[in-house]
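Hey, can you fold this one?
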Amino acid sequence: MVAVVALAGGVAWALLGSNFFVVRSVQVNGAGSISRQTVVAAAGVALGTPLIRVDAAVVARRVDKITRVQSASVRRSWPDSVVIKVVPRTPTFLVRADRGYDVVDSYGVMLGRAAGLTTGLVLLKAPAGPAPAWRENVGVLTAGAVVRRLPSWLRHRLLEVRPRQGPRVILVLWPRITVVWGDASRAAAKAAEVAVLLRTKATYFDVSDPGSAITGWPAGG
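Sure. Predicted structure:
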């Protein structure tokens, strides 16, 4: 019994009181354009902290608060490291602003500004209101979900996304083809319909119900 108590005490001392298992490095993986210094500062893990005392969930929540971070995961790497894996937010949309454009990800989070149109980013006709409200706007969130699900060939033709009332969006494809896409569901079926309809000379498609796609501008359109 005495030996067991002594062993437990020795383990506790090694983990909490000695210098054997303390944080000597903080590794950051996958941060992309987000600097390591920014991530480490947000993580708030002091070198020399006993590794057993590092709460991975708490550290991850701190890193998640960085605007350009979509998600973060943290783990302790024995004997002396903390490893932070970051998934950066992906710039997706350009929203016209007073001067230039706001750069926004597909979840409605503003990431910065751009002076002009930028290759690879799509115009988004955002609703009125301050940028922080976009991340809770149904139209903006639907637009983001639609773009995330588009096949690459269709994504490359996309010029603009126009949210409509409720979970419904309109896509504008090169060369100025209007596609009523609807919500984010059944993306593969809708894309297949668009692939067929692009062979025609029509400049207006409605594939919101891919089982009964419509071409030609509606009356009054």
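The mean pLDDT is 89. Let me know if you want another pass with a different chain boundary.
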